[in-house]
Q: What sequence folds into this?
């Protein structure tokens, strides 16, 4: 006698590079009474084939399939605005599926004019919104956005100042930040290309050019060790006593464009090696 799943068409799956499969439900509609038998048949087939990890991407239009998928042993991995990803580890061995993204990437923009004045803002909300603290323009890099591009964009959005990226001066790592993720925060030095401020009304209460000594003298800067260190590094760079990191276009192992950051001495040595 044939098994109940032998005549059921399995879900369409594509093999990945790690002994697993990925399922993207592209159908416009699928009822639970059709989906569940196909999922059961698929799991049986994958187990026989020695498949390890299974990834099922459910578009938001298939939200009704989340519960039956979980009942078959799947768990949440991550979600975006238009889909939910669920995963299932089949063999009786330790689960080695990679975790969801663990970090966010933030930037702080150090912009100083020829009068040794730094570009600072006061936010309308957030941790410093009610404290009257003057701070560098800050923000979060978008998916697929380079650090230096994010820094230029955030300054433009918050103050309407045009800038060009110079280098990364420092970075900080903290944990249990937004949504429990870890955070990498990069302090970027930018050179101003314009000087007339037009603040972003929706998020910024005030913006101005401030003498760097006045910025550093703020109690908030002096009382918080990490803020003080960053301010001192920025001040040192303005006196040319520090050297930051600059992006060099490179290719990843998959052939995609990326950036590797070097300091001035490393770049000079690399140019010498290349005969430049």
A:
């Amino acid at each position: 006698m044939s098994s109940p799943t032998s005549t059921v068409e399995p879900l369409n799956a594509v093999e990945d590079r790690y002994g697993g499969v990925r399922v993207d439900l592209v159908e416009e509609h699928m009822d639970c009474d059709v989906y569940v038998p196909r999922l059961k048949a698929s799991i049986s087939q994958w187990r026989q084939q020695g498949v390890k990890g299974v990834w099922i991407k459910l578009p938001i239009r298939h939200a009704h399939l989340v519960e039956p998928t979980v009942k078959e042993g799947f768990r949440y991995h991550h979600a975006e605005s238009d889909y939910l990803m669920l995963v299932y580890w089949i063999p009786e061995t330790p689960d080695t599926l990679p975790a969801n993204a663990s970090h966010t990437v933030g930037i702080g923009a150090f912009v100083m004019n020829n009068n040794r004045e730094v570009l600072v803002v006061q936010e309308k909300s957030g941790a410093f919104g009610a404290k009257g603290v003057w701070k560098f323009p800050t923000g979060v890099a978008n998916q697929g956005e380079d650090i230096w591009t994010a820094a230029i964009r955030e300054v433009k959005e918050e103050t309407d100042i045009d800038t060009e990226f110079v280098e990364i001066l420092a970075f900080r790592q903290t944990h249990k930040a937004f949504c429990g993720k870890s955070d990498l925060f990069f302090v970027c030095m930018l050179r101003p290309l314009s000087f007339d401020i037009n603040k972003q009304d929706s998020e910024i209460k005030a913006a101005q050019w401030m003498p760097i000594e006045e910025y550093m003298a703020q109690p908030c800067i002096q009382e918080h060790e990490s803020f003080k260190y960053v301010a001192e590094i920025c001040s040192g760079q303005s006196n040319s006593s520090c050297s930051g990191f600059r992006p060099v276009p490179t290719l990843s192992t998959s052939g995609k464009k990326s950036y590797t950051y070097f300091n001035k001495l490393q770049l000079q040595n690399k140019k010498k090696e290349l005969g430049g």
Notes: The chain is about 25% helix and 35% strand. The first strand starts at residue 14 and ends at 15. The CA atoms of residues 31 and 65 lie 8 Å apart.
